[in-house]
Specification:
Layout: E1 3-6, E2 8-11, E3 14-21, H1 39-62, H2 70-85, H3 87-90, H4 92-100, H5 104-120, H6 125-129, H7 131-146, E4 161-165, H8 170-175, E5 183-186, H9 194-201, E6 206-208, H10 213-216, E7 222-226, E8 231-234, H11 238-259, E9 275-280, H12 286-291, E10 297-301, H13 315-328, E11 334-337, H14 364-369, H15 371-384, E12 390-394, H16 400-420, E13 429-434, H17 437-441, H18 443-449, E14 452-455, H19 457-465, H20 483-499, E15 503-505, H21 513-522, E16 526-529, H22 531-542, H23 546-558, H24 562-573
Parallel strand pairs: 3-4, 4-5, 5-6, 9-10, 9-16, 10-11, 11-12, 12-13, 13-14, 14-15
Antiparallel strand pairs: 1-8, 2-6, 3-7, 7-8
Helix pairs in contact: 1-2, 1-4, 1-7, 2-7, 4-5, 5-7, 13-15, 15-16, 18-20, 21-22, 21-23, 21-24, 23-24
The structure holds phosphoenolpyruvate and magnesium ion.
Length: 574
């Protein structure tokens, strides 16, 4: 039977291929019966997994890297060891294997459900929150039993595979960078969630917020994914298939034509120069940035160095990553954002369970709460600054005090390098991300302390409109054209320009060709975006004249009705 599912397109293009369902080890544990004769060997398999995790936890405790908050991590690892050694986890599942004649994974899952249920009923909030620790330990044991990481593409996916998942974290998606497949779609997620942002960096059509896709679609069914329009067609008939193959060819042709613009200077019709920079998550993304003619890295999301690992990256490992990007970019600017951890980018063994993570200890707040962690990142960034043109960018600022503290810690990191006789760029510029309404409204005073600012519109929209960017149930309310958002963005650009400080937009708005002229009209001359969008944005800039934009930009800013803004924007883009 053929049917269509609608979601939110996060990465354009059309993919045609076969569904490959993927799922999370913790959520989807296989259940099968075992014969009586296998009980002993199944129990031994379980014991071996427990022993493996025991060793892993000891290893992790022995190798807490310099720069990590060692006391906290050690306490957490000790807690995990205690949970592991408790007979409710290390012994009870073996009894279940025997009594139920089931596989070890299933016995462990049943026992975990029981424990989680007991903890959920506890009144003490500290103890209740240990639920997350139990799940993490169980997940480790499950991984040891399965002999594979949590989310796994079971086999190397085929080139035409379309991965279908219920939900994925940014950490899961980054693993997929190692594979080639046609597309990927999920039930949950919003267009600017970090999962979607990493999905975009895979450079394949993808759609999120499909709600039911994972349960409706069966393994190996033929799918068409239209990433531009956020549509998935399941089991299309032959006429639809032909139509989409045609569209796919057209899309590819357009991409090929755009490639010709790679070396063209980005200048408007009336001669205004515009900088188009790239956002990257990993050092290897530099290649795609260069392929698309980026004239700088406007945002290196360094927190991705932390994901999918049981330990923390050492100063030396970070230094190597930052140095590599600086060297590869051959002296053109590389903007290194300090860790934006927390919210949807939690680190294994480091997460605290926050009641509302997006409003909790995230980004600069976490770094100031963990100054040693921050110190070693700052040292690594400064060391790398000797090898190229590096700028430091501080995420999620909301008060002057945070800027002062961050600058103080940068000063301390410089002093420690001086003491060690290690060279760095003494004039390294320090900028701030404006992504909280408080920062937008305080931008004039912030600017006195900062060398440049970068507008993180993904979070600015989230925090201005009070809409969780990763929650698909409010995805329809996430609106970059909301008058309040436009007023804040234009205010920041105007203030920075008046103060003579460079200002960029590095949120997803910068890569949306529908908004290019509007941002130019606001006075923006620096855009940073996923490299896949760069040439399309360049094409719009090349066809735009700044002088023609001012009238309609002012009318958009004076409008307070979405429909009217949409109409004016359409006129602007004609
Ligand atoms: C933003 O918030 O717009 C931004 C660029 O940062 P991130 O998407 O990583 O939160
Ligand atoms: Mg942000």
């Amino acid at each position: 039977m053929s049917f269509t599912v609608h979601g939110v397109g996060v990465s354009g293009g059309i993919a045609i291929g076969r569904a490959q369902l993927i799922s999370h080890a913790q959520l989807e544990v296989a259940h099968y019966d075992i014969p009586k004769s296998r009980v002993k060997s199944e129990q031994a398999r379980f014991d071996a997994a427990i022993a493996k995790v025991r060793n892993e936890l000891v290893e992790l405790t022995d190798h807490i890297p310099a720069g990590a908050p060692s006391a906290e991590i050690e306490a957490l690892l000790n807690l995990h060891r205690m949970i592991l050694e408790d007979s409710t986890l290390s012994e009870a599942p073996k009894q279940l294997i025997e009594s139920m004649k089931c596989n070890a994974e299933w016995a462990l899952k049943l026992q975990m459900d029981e424990l989680v249920d007991q903890f959920a009923r506890i009144e003490d909030s500290y103890l209740r929150e240990r639920n997350a620790d139990i799940k993490q330990v169980v997940e480790r044991v499950l991984k040891a039993l399965l002999g594979s990481p949590g989310y796994s593409v079971r086999h190397t996916p085929e080139e035409n595979a379309i991965l279908v998942a219920h939900d994925l974290s940014p950490a899961d998606v980054i693993v997929f960078k190692q594979h080639h497949f046609a597309s990927f779609i999920t039930d949950l997620g919003g267009a600017t969630s970090h999962t979607a942002i990493v999905a975009r960096s895979l450079n394949i059509p993808s759609v999120v917020a499909l709600h039911q896709a994972r349960s409706l679609i069966r393994e190996n069914e033929t799918l068409i994914v239209d990433g531009t329009n956020g549509v998935v067609i399941v089991n299309p008939d032959s006429s639809i298939l032909t139509e989409y193959k045609l569209r796919q060819d057209q899309w590819r042709l357009e991409r090929k034509k755009l490639k010709r613009l790679k070396r063209t200077k980005t200048t408007t019709l009336d001669g205004m120069d515009v900088e188009l920079h790239a956002n990257i998550e990993l050092p290897e993304d530099v290649a795609v940035a260069q392929e698309n003619g980026a004239t700088g890295i406007g945002l290196f999301r360094t927190e991705f160095l932390f994901l999918n690992r049981g330990d923390l990256p050492s100063e030396d490992e970070q230094f190597e990553a930052y140095r590599r990007v600086a060297v590869d970019m051959k002296g053109i600017p590389v903007t290194i954002r300090t860790f934006d951890l927390g919210a949807d980018k939690q680190v294994e063994n480091f997460g605290r369970v926050a009641p509302n993570p997006a409003l909790g200890l995230r980004a600069i707040r976490l770094c100031l709460a963990e100054p040693r962690l921050f110190h070693f990142q700052l040292r690594a960034v400064l060391r790398a600054s000797h090898y190229g043109k590096i700028r430091i960018l501080i995420p999620m600022l909301s008060s002057m005090h945070e800027i002062e503290q961050a600058q103080h810690l940068i000063g301390e990191a410089k002093e420690s390098l001086d003491t060690d006789g290690i060279p760095y760029d003494e004039n390294v510029e320090v900028g701030g991300m404006i992504e909280v309404p408080a920062a937008a409204l305080s931008v004039n005073s912030f600017m006195r302390k900062l060398d440049f600012v970068s507008i993180g519109t993904n979070d600015l929209i989230q925090y201005t409109l009070a809409i969780d960017r990763s929650d698909d149930s409010v995805a329809h309310l996430y609106d970059p054209l909301h008058p309040a958002v436009l007023e804040l963005v234009s205010h920041i650009i105007r203030s920075a320009t008046r103060a003579g400080k460079p200002v960029a937009v590095c949120g997803e708005m910068a890569g949306d060709t529908r908004l290019t002229r509007l941002l130019l009209g606001f006075g923006l001359r620096q855009f940073s975006m996923h490299p896949a969008h760069l040439l399309a944005v360049k094409q719009v800039v090349l066809k735009s004249g700044i002088a023609d934009l001012s009238n309609v930009t002012q009318r958009i800013l004076r409008s307070h009705v979405s429909d009217r803004i949409e109409n004016l924007l359409q006129r602007m883009n004609e």
